[in-house]
Amino acid sequence: MATGSALRFGAQTDEVTSLLRIVNLVRTGEADTRPEIGRVTGLGRGVVTQRVEAAIDMGFLAEGDVGPSSGGRAPRTLRFRSDQAVILVCALGALHIRVGLSDLDGNILASDHRPWDIAKGPEATLAAATAMLDTLLANGGDPEIWAASVGVPGPVDFETGTPVAPPIMPGWNGFDLRGVFQEKYAVPTWVDNDVNLLALTERRHRKDETVDLIYCKVGTGIGAGLVSKGRIHRGANGAAGDIGHVRVHDSVTVCRCGKVGCLEAEAGGWAVVRDAQQAIDDGASGILASRVREGADLTPEEISIAAMDGDALAISLVQKSARLVGESIAALVNMFNPSVIVIGGAMSSAGEVFLAEVRQRVYELSLPLATRDLSIVRSIGDEDEPLLGGAELAIEQLFETTFPRWFADGRPTVEGIHLAA
């Protein structure tokens, strides 16, 4: 049986490679008995037995129940030990903080949420987020932590884990988000754009390892997560999918980023609220205007609800946003050729009022071949979606990207992952 010292990443052997593969086969459910592992890998029975025993000794696998018999003695199943540690997930939005704990299979074990303005800055925001996580950990009996992931509503340099000139996050540019979590929790941490996390959630829902997918979030801001053959496409510097700042023809509206004519400045949630407020101030009537004058907060969600209730002003604003978003998505469809587009965010709460307009513009402006097998759907809208995506990110990085660097130690470490990268 291999010892830890013989399984170091620097001495990759067939033994190491096959052991890693066996752990991942069981983890992903591709094989859960020794005979199945042998069939999938082509390894002999004795080799499979040795590798499985090594994986059990290292704590990655455990014996399961007895499986169905194929004629001889029924084989005992194997299971991945997803309960041996947790992953911390922090999903920061423009106006909220959401945190959670997941097991190593990506199942959310506990979560919490609170309203929060991201413009309060990194120190105050992260103090609030980590306090929420600490409460979850204490309530969960202080489990062992293996990793953390953080989503933010702005561009991220994925290699360094730092936001890059995020338009709605003053004081966050270049802030060492990864360092804060690694220093506090002593675990490897990954930071990504919040829309990428939502795209990973959609990949998880579909259980398709090769899906080509666009997740478009139309909330306070606008962004897209691109999944190519099952992998997030971040681009050279992490800016891929930032469609909120593409130019809208003939627009002269100043965006929050400082540029003129951005899609977000015409179709984002904050822009729709701006236009709704102006119309109400100018004397507009109807359901939405009445609610606002009675004291309701004017938000993208409120406008979407009013549109579904038939309010003329809300419908016109939602349809304008959807038309402009659809035009930008059409350009992505022609270039990227996805099989599915998922629309999420507060503006999508208007349902078919929003989706129908997006579909019309996409099918009208995209090439027939690119839309032949294309479906455009609304996201499930589960509150745990960003947490599920954050867990998916950490699991992918732990077990598919960096596993050879740390598995011989039995658990991931900051030094074994980030410093060795």
Topology:
Elements: H1 14-28, H2 34-41, H3 45-57, E1 61-66, E2 76-80, E3 86-92, E4 96-102, E5 108-115, H4 122-139, E6 145-152, E7 156-157, E8 162-163, H5 177-185, E9 189-193, H6 194-206, E10 213-218, E11 222-228, E12 231-232, H7 263-267, H8 269-281, H9 287-293, H10 300-308, H11 312-336, E13 340-344, H12 352-365, H13 368-371, E14 375-378, H14 385-401, H15 403-406, H16 414-417
Parallel strand pairs: 3-6, 6-9, 10-13, 13-14
Antiparallel strand pairs: 1-2, 3-4, 4-5, 7-8, 10-11, 11-12
What does this structure look like?
The chain has 421 residues and is α/β, with parallel strands linked by helices. The strands form four sheets. The chain has a five-stranded mixed β-sheet, sandwiched between helices. The chain has a five-stranded mixed β-sheet with strand order 12-11-10-13-14, with helices on both faces. Strand 7 and strand 8 form a beta hairpin.
